[in-house]
């Protein structure tokens, strides 16, 4: 049962072949056994979870179940969930119990999904390896000496290790796609504004976007159907008609060549030096498969993409320094036990509550926003951001989707990049531009590289083209089985 897709599990629940309590218990037992090794969850609350499962069973018993009713889903600990400790991977919030639900949590609960627990993450979603978490690193289920990727590493490891059949994540510069690639999953970052950020603890508000992490594209579509939708409480939430993101996964007109008519853009900037040979081989084989399915490929250019890391590391810290100013020991979470006066309380609280990477970002962000540097750094970065977005607009005149690697390497060893922040930042070289442009992107498993570690293929869509990305990924997953492989645990 633990290897079944959300679609299969939903079917079994609705026919009452299995109850939500049984299904949820199976996952809770795996969590109890494997979480001590993987550290994928920060908080598990068996009773709270089982109470939700019983409620789902009651709904199913009345014949009221939808596609997700009774299905256990893990939430990244960046999403506020009522009654649950919500830490954002930080000491600052280590004692914070949320009094309300994030929009995403509310939507999934409304659909009948059961909250399995809160997953580990880089502190305030800053990182690419899940090593900045106050709660310790997450281990990669394929090889526990390796990182899970980040910042949604707990969600990725949980789904890969079959501790959860699906999970939520957030992606500011790659944090859904990169851990999905490193753990062998399917993960999708929607177009900016499709998923409400209400109750999702803010890192860089103009880039942050929640999305699903699951084993297949079809399962991601199912989760996204519930997670998306207008929310007046987020001023950047978009008011659009509801969509069925799985509408493209039905029978293809031409089953042998279902991708006839699709043009895939291959940016030369994605295939140059920098990508490891094992990753390049798997990605190129995947693109050959996509061609066999009938798609055409064209070479394209994204000339300003090389600026995406420097631009991101001005803008994201600038927004973070502002967003994190609310953690002052008065309103939320941790407060230093000893202090002289108010100013001293602020200083000690923040010195104790935040880890090194978060402090580094606050310093950079405050610097680039300060008088005299604002024009030189922040404003300049905003202009370059526009140029990066325009590159994509130009590219999508020649293609329907863009493909390339998600990460330049497979999962690296724990500790390997911790001492060198720039080395760590380069882990997101292929994903960050997508956030700067506000586009949707996904990562799907496409093979294995060195040491038997998974490789991810990145698919980037035009604005609001999630359904097409999902269809393309699904066609590929119909003829390959990378997404079905499981680590031996
Ligand atoms: N690794 C990037 C960072 O550290 C992106 C993180 C994310 O997408 N949340 O900022």
3D structure, described in words:
The protein is 37% helix and 13% strand. It contains 15 helices and 13 strands. A hairpin with a 5-residue loop joins strand 12 (441-448) and strand 13 (454-461). The two termini are 16 Å apart. It binds glutamine. Residues 125-128, 151, 171-175, 203, 316, 428 line the site of glutamine.
Main beta sheet: strand number and arrangement?
Answer: 8 strands, mixed
Distance between the termini: 16 Å
What order do the strands of the largest sheet run in, or round the barrel if closed? 6-8-7-12-13-11-9-10
Number of strands: 13
Order of helices and strands: HHEHEHEEEHEHEEHEHEHHHHEHHEEH
Q: Helix/strand/pairing class, anyone?
A: alpha+beta
Task: Kindly report the average pLDDT value.
Answer: 97
Global outline: globular
Tell me the β content.
5-15%
Round the Cα radius of gyration to an integer and report it. 21 Å
Characteristic terms for this protein:
globular; alpha+beta; 489 residues; single chain; 3-stranded mixed beta sheet; 15 helices; 13 strands; binds glutamine; 13% strand
Q: What's a concise summary of this model?
A:
The chain has about 500 residues and is α+β, with helices and mostly antiparallel strands. It contains 15 helices and 13 strands.
